Amino acid sequence: MGQDTLIRNVLIPTAQILAVVLILPLLIAYLQLVERKVLGFMQARLAPRRVGWHGLLQPIADAVKLLIKEDVIPEKSDRFLFTLAPIATVIPALAALAVIPFAGAPFTVFGYEVKPFITDVNVALLYLLAISSLGIYGIILGGWASNSKYSLLGALRSSAQMISYEVPLGFAIIGVMMLAGSASMVDIVEAQRKAGVWYVVPQLVGFFCYFIAAIAETNRVPFDLPEAEAELVAGFHTEYSGMKFAFFFLAEYTNMIVVSCIATILFFGGWLRPLPNVESLWWLQNGWLILLPLTLGGFAGWLFGQRTGRGLPPMIAGGGIGAAAGAILAMSDLGGLASLSLPAVSGAFWFFFKVSLFLFMYIWFRGTYPRYRYDQLMALGWKWLIPLSVANVIVTGLAIVVKGAVQGRG
Amino acid sequence: MTPAAVVFYILASLALLSAVMVIWSRNVVHSAIYLVLTFLCVAGVYIVLRAEFVAAVQVLVYAGGIVVLFLFVIMLVNLAGTLGPRVRVHATVSAIVGCAAVALLLYVSASGGLDTDFGARIDLSAQGGNLQAVGWALYSDYLLPFEIASLLLLVAMIGAIVLARQKY
Amino acid sequence: MTSLFNPNDVRLITPELVLTISAFLILGLSVLPDLGRKTWAPVLAGLACVSTLASLLSFVWMFGLEALRTPDMTIGFNGMFILDAFSIFFKVVFLLAAMLTILVSARYLEVERAHTGEYYALILFAVVGMMFLASAGDFITIFVSLETMALSFYILVGFLKTNRKSNEAALKYFLLGSFSTGIFLYGISLVYGTTQTTVLGLIGISRAKMALQSPAAPIFVLGVILVTVGLAFKIAAVPFHMWAPDAYEGAPTPVTAFLSTGSKAAAFVVLARIFSMGFLPLGQRWATLLAILAVASMTLGNVAAILQENIKRMLAYSSIAHAGYVLMGMIAVGLGDTVETREYGLKAVLLYLLVYTFVNIGAFALVIILRREQVAGDRVADFAGLSRRAPWAAFAMLVFMLSLAGIPATAGFIGKWFLFGAVVKAHYAWLAVVAVINSAISLYYYARVVVNMYMKAPEGAARLAPSWGQRVAIGACIAFTLVFGLYPQPIIAFAERSILALAPWAS
Fold first, then answer.
1. What is the pTM for the complete model shown?
2. Does A248 lie at the interface with B, CB-CB under 8 angstroms?
3. Which of A326, C303, C469, C489 gives a 20 to 30 Å CA spacing to C180?
């Protein structure tokens, strides 16, 4: 094996995997901070602000606390499975990221071409479904091995819930697969570029089913029955502490991110800019040049409004000024900033922008909705989502056939 | 040995080992976990044989669906302690039959009756990949069995409903 | 290889489609709310009966009356589906069995308070599975059709949900059935692995010989053995019969009747198809295997039947013994040194299964009409004095018992005559001797029922109240047994026309 192939086939994939696995926990730690901040804002209270400036170091403190906390293993638990469970939850969650393309175009590092995803296989969607179905084991085993009523009940609930919602999840995805004619993530995004429209438009019903089922799959509000604190203390992870608890935590947030990534890729064009086929909107490609000033201006305006008691108008004004400046910057290529913007970077920007919107939705839901009752949850899954998603598949198939027939004649 | 062969032998022996552990383990839940491991290893073997679709479906259906239901039932009925002493006679007979089958396979394998090219001859790229190849097969040659299978699943559903509902 | 399906092929499966669509219809209608005290179930029973008739008639529609006599062999769905005289013969048998079963079911289910539309839908689905089985030309089609049939039966056996015996029977049948399916499937996979095809015709023409000459021959033979074992489970041949007595006893009696005739005939179709199309080059080997099964089944079935007090159990053991008899025909197919002998063996199998269907359903129909409120009616003692309570019913049972025992002037005799003749022709006369001795043993327990009916005083005076459907069914069975017992030429000719085309690779 030559040095070149060694680098290409071994070193670069390893580096990619390491990058994903190492950056992710940090990302999740701050996602947690964002969640607390947003919830705090929604509930009109102060979120963490003691550790660091506005609580910016809070995630680090939390991580350190979890690391050095005593690792309690209950006396009558099944030690082997009790330890296996958190690992079995984290591994599938991380493994799912292997097929997520974060951007379209490759970039070059030290003369080697690096693709912005770990791998692209032709059964990526099925792989994702398969991997996510393995995630149940950690929960079910953790709940059983703890030898605690709350844990067991939580585990039973969550496994029933996840099995039930896997079905509409799978059916919702099939519609996209039929339109794209492929199960590869990269091909699906490319198919959306060719179609000139994000698949959320023809597959609105599919997206609706997918999004609801995905929230249920990740056990988030309003489907967080497995850990309904009022009834089950903390559900399947009642008995867990320290690092093992952190693993469950990590897995839950990784799943949230993965699910949002899939939604972005399947229904919102992945790394494509909005309206990818409208030539005159080419400058949107450098969206970060607009969005960054917009956010900064808006934030500054908001702070100003808070200080001076003028409310929201300064924020809108600041955001508007920032956006205008950014748009000029993007269109005029002032200062050569836009040419700095590699295709990979702009793709990644749009991708992560969409993913963060989904993540924000998750938090928003958590701040808004009450929890479902168990029978309501099952009724929703079996009586509404599954028929709806199956109907979506049938209608999509018919539409493709009709369209093919019409085009064939014309 | 090619890399594919090395991976195959590792996965295959792991699969066999965990299959043995399924019946060896005294704890039902442990058995179920070993079963999952077996399925995962078999899925790996499918990948070595370039059948990615079958591998994904293997994990999705067997590891992700069926064994979860096993676990579900195990937890609900709480089997702990109901496993009595093993039936010696049956175990002995099963062991003899199993060993005989393995010996037969080894004999055939030693005399060169088994292919060991690990799917190197299979070329799916011409048919547009694994998924398309399976789809084509299902909707052309195997259309009739495919449709009968849908009937089979319908019967299973009706059966579940008929047997589970309260009234006649 | 990969050609999309030919829309004209749909025409070939018209009879199956008719049944499937009516099963859907029945399922849809069975969710209708009841009208006061009346339910829709009798209407659905009528619909099911009509649909089997329509399915039968669709053969005439397909071929016309003249061409029906010797339809050409048609292959559809890329070799997955074979429509030949052989499959049509069995489809007719299945449809007749289903029709008789439906006729005797309605009253029984009302007594058991389990009269719902799903029952008939499941019966029809089972028939669809059997019919596809009869036409299957490929291991994959065989497997899915076999499972469709078996799954319907698992549910039907446990259809009386409040009856513990029924539950137990369903569970045992299900567990052992799925176990046997696993063995069967493993056998198929080994055969596929060594022959590289699942198409029966291909295996028979060349691949079986190739596999036998390759170093992998032991695996191929193991595959054949496992396929045999899997099918032996389905036909309930000893030593794979353990499920049969329990399943037959616990199941609703009409289901038992259907199970012991339809399901058994279906398993024999597969057996005949696989062994005479696919594995004929190994004829000598599997014939020996089947001979062991046959001797064991006949002997154990008949001896165990003597000991039974419950008539359903008795008939279960008797049906195990009958499976042993029918296997003799297959042995002649495997051993025969001329094409004539082999065809004779096949003819005997076909004939016997046709006769057995009518006779056995008739016998079970009598057990069914003995079932009334508060009376289980399934002990041999329940037949005591039947000749005085219901002379016609007693006469019917007499005919069926004599026919099962193989007494001349009944159809059962004709069937046995050909089976015994087949093994004699194949130079396996000792097997015929064993079978004759076994028939003599069987006479004992069949006669016991007759003695009970005619020479004992009745225990109760309750009258029987068979429904019209049951009367028609029993009448048809008696007529069949007696008419063709005295004048068998038509059914012999029917069977003769319908044997598998063995010619190309028979020698």
1. 0.88
2. no
3. C303
